[in-house]
Design a protein that fits this description.
The strands form three sheets. The protein has a five-stranded parallel sheet, sandwiched between helices. Strands 9-8-10-11-12 form a five-stranded parallel sheet, sandwiched between helices. Strands 1-2 form a two-stranded antiparallel ribbon. It starts with 7 loop residues before the first helix and ends in an 18-residue tail after the last helix. Helix 6 links the parallel strand 5 and strand 6. The longest helix has 24 residues. The chain has 369 residues and is α/β, with parallel strands linked by helices. Helix content is 45%, strand content 17%. The protein is built from 13 helices and twelve strands. The protein binds fructose -6-phosphate (F6R). The site of fructose -6-phosphate has 15 residues, from helix 4 and helix 11. GO terms for molecular function: carbohydrate derivative binding; glutamine-fructose-6-phosphate transaminase (isomerizing) activity.
Length: 369
């Protein structure tokens, strides 16, 4: 039931604040992350020496964001791999490896087979999943459910923000169990986490109309590029994937630092480029590097659409459009900056008269390899 919305996707994007809130709900006690499902697993978390995250598509991009959180808070090395790539190489995995799979449906064959392969090689497996009782969680040693609620539109939106949220919870939990996380950092992180739903709501309330208008103007666009750095990089990839899936426009995401190693050759006058701008408060280094990327592409005629923190005046002289997101600590920015990109992809497809819930050639859950 679309509940009065024009599409399931419109409803699911509107539910992004809720998807985050419900995933956190019941998992914070006395200023600490407590994940009841992981009771009795402390020894396992203390004993593992590395994490491999396995997933496909949008869930893989959530995993890429999770790497920054797990490494920073839990001080554990993390590799993030496409499940189908993991399975067919001679992966070095053993009992000291924790494999974290991420899947909205819990039925993705590529991810399931990779998890089974990892278990066969002796790894411990933990599933982050949105569907109670699905196959992947049943095949795993541990489960952390995301509580985004059923996702009906084929392309993933609210499940993505819930997956990143679950990875924050896991990283904070494992960080505490391993003694890697100070109480102070933990408390600050929980405050940030709990403030996210309201901030996403702010974007929906204040920016959605403008972004849809922008999408409307861009219906004849043939190619869109997305640039991001650090945690903004996986969001650039997600923005490009969603635009391809929903609007059938050619779109690519790049690491901003790669620009001069190749992608800058694509820039010609009028080329639209979304740039994920890190907060200027993050020691300013990343921010100023991304600003100089913007100058470089602008000098070559790019049309820059910056996704930037509210109050970041430095982007104004260089951007053709600025999509605002509320302030958040660096690791939490992705959950906010992805929202304008979801709205944009959905808005452009809608403006083109396409079916956003059921894009051509795609299936909600890919149960074949
Ligand atoms: C993108 C999308 C797909 C899925 C991927 C994994 O919008 O929906 O890329 O993210 O097929 O699906 P799950 O999470 O069900 O394993």
């Amino acid at each position: 039931d679309k509940g009065g919305w024009s599409s399931f996707m419109a409803k699911e994007v509107a539910e992004e604040p809720d998807a985050v809130a419900k995933t956190v709900l019941g998992r914070v006690h006395d200023g600490q992350i407590v994940i009841p499902e992981l009771d009795g697993m402390d020894e396992l978390f203390q004993g593992v020496s590395r994490v491999i995250v396995l997933a496909c598509g949008t869930a893989y991009y959530a995993g890429l964001v999770g790497k920054y959180a797990l490494e920073q808070w839990a001080r554990i090395p993390v590799d993030v791999e496409l499940a189908h790539e993991f399975r067919y190489r001679d992966a070095i995995v053993g009992p000291d490896t924790l494999v974290v799979s991420i899947s909205q449906s819990g039925e993705t064959m590529d991810t399931l087979m990779a998890v089974k392969e990892a278990a066969r090689l002796g790894a411990k497996t933990l599933s982050i999943c949105n569907t109670q009782g699905a196959t992947i969680p049943r095949e795993s040693d541990a489960i952390v459910y995301t509580h985004a609620g059923p996702e009906v539109a084929v392309a993933s939106t609210k499940a993505f923000v819930a997956q990143i949220t679950a990875l924050y919870l896991l990283a904070l939990h494992v960080g505490r169990v391993r003694g890697a996380l100070s109480a102070e950092v933990g408390v600050e992180a929980i405050e940030e986490l709990e403030a996210l739903p309201e901030k996403i709501q702010w974007i929906l309330d204040n920016e959605q109309g403008r972004i849809e208008q922008l999408a409307h103007w861009m219906t004849d666009t043939r190619s869109v590029l997305f640039l991001g750095r650090h945690v903004g990089f996986p969001i650039a990839l997600e923005g490009a994937l969603k635009l391809k899936e929903l609007s059938y426009i050619h779109a690519e995401g790049f690491a901003a630092g790669e620009l001069k190693h190749g992608p800058i050759a694509l820039i010609e006058p009028g080329q639209p480029v979304f740039v994920m701008v890190p907060s200027p408060r993050d020691g300013a280094t990343l921010h100023s590097k991304v600003i100089s990327n913007i100058e470089e592409i602008r000098a070559r005629g790019a049309r820059v659409i910056a996704v930037a923190e509210e109050g970041d005046a430095a982007v104004l002289p260089f951007a053709d459009e600025v999509l605002r997101v509320p302030l958040a600590a660096p690791l939490f920015e992705p959950v906010l900056s992805v929202v304008p990109l979801h709205i944009f992809a959905m808005g452009l497809a809608t403006a083109k008269g396409l079916d956003v819930d059921q894009p051509r050639n795609l299936a909600k859950s890919v149960t074949v390899e």
